[in-house]
Amino acid sequence: MSQSVPDSPEVVVAGGGMVGLTLGIALAQSGIETIVIDGADPAVVKDAAFDGRVSSFAPTSRRMLEVLSVWEHVAPHAEPVLDIVVGDGTVRGGASTAMLHFDHRDLGSEPLAHMVENRHFRIALDARARACPSLTVVAPARVTSVQAEGSGVLVHTETGREIRARLCVAADGRDSPIREACGIRTHGWPYRQHGIVTTVAHERPHCGVAHELFLEAGPFAILPMRGNRSSIVWSESERQAQAFMAMGADAFASEVRQRFGDHLGEIQIFGPRWSYPLSLALAETYLADRVALVGDAAHAVHPLAGQGLNLGLRDVAAMAETVIEARRLGLDSGARSTLMRYEAWRRIDNTVFALSMDALNRLFSNDIAPLRSLRRLGIDLVDGLGPLKSVFMRQASGEAGNMPRLLRGEPV
User: Fold this and answer.
1) Is the pTM for the entire model greater than 0.90?
2) Which of 151, 167, 218, 359 could in theory staple to 365 by disulfide, Cβ–Cβ 3.0 to 4.6 A?
3) Domain 11-76+116-187+280-364 falls in which CATH fold?
4) How far is 100 from 86, CA to CA, in rounded Å?
């Protein structure tokens, strides 16, 4: 990672989160001079007390990170997900008898996913970034404006620095200031749900099994972590979520236990709790003059399948391949004609996935008796159809469609 800030890199990535910094590494590994500008303080986001969140890494994401020499730093902290159990139930009545079981052995020998604490992934990205001579990370700092100028783009930072590049990639989150400044509209709606995240320690080992229980207000996910720990990602109504967040430690733990059940023995809250509003937002276009959107800046989805980061990493793979191949062919990497390949590659996949998760959330996040009976019948039906389950598993793992080379585990 360069110590000085070049004035004219090929690409500026605005946003140094998990998606933005991965893109910076992918580009720099191929020798493309790249600057990542991150508004967050690296020391804060890598601290264990930051927010306690974890992310799911699909097999395709893991393969890409192996090619980028990032996974070697992640692997000691990754917990494999070997089985996923999906069910339907109520808070008072518990889980119904309808269960959908996904077994990793149905697709081969590799795990369905790996769960990694966000801070460990950020530490891994930081370690790899430091070894990339073509990459410069500027943090904490923010991009204040982006202005297209002929064959380039002028990026201004809050410190007054001006950086000229061929392309600016906005990886600055679901409320992307760059997207707004470019006049790119989004379509979507709030879910009137909040996600609650916390970590629990439990008496018995989870054996690599993830659980997703659809309750009246939304899904309650139990995601395996290293050791006898699991991450809870819990969707609740806005009002109830606020009430739960305001509870004392004992009362909050009691609510978690009521939903968690006793299949892993006694549980204790381990670490902080955190809450955020849930919404769907899809950018009308991923492109503006010399600007492209990736990750949550382009698409924010419901977390019920835990695929938000994987969608962003698929954007990274497609963007990296688009830019790298343009450079090799002597094309303008920031031209709209070049970037249209990236948009066509990713926009349909992201939109279909987001709307599918929206439909599932609407179907399952209610206590309407006819729908409850219908969805339980559907769970039993899908569980009995092996080929259909395999289709769902391949879609979730990112194996479907025209995959960029990085997702296949191949260098660009």
Assistant:
1) yes
2) 218
3) FAD/NAD(P)-binding domain (3.50.50)
4) 5
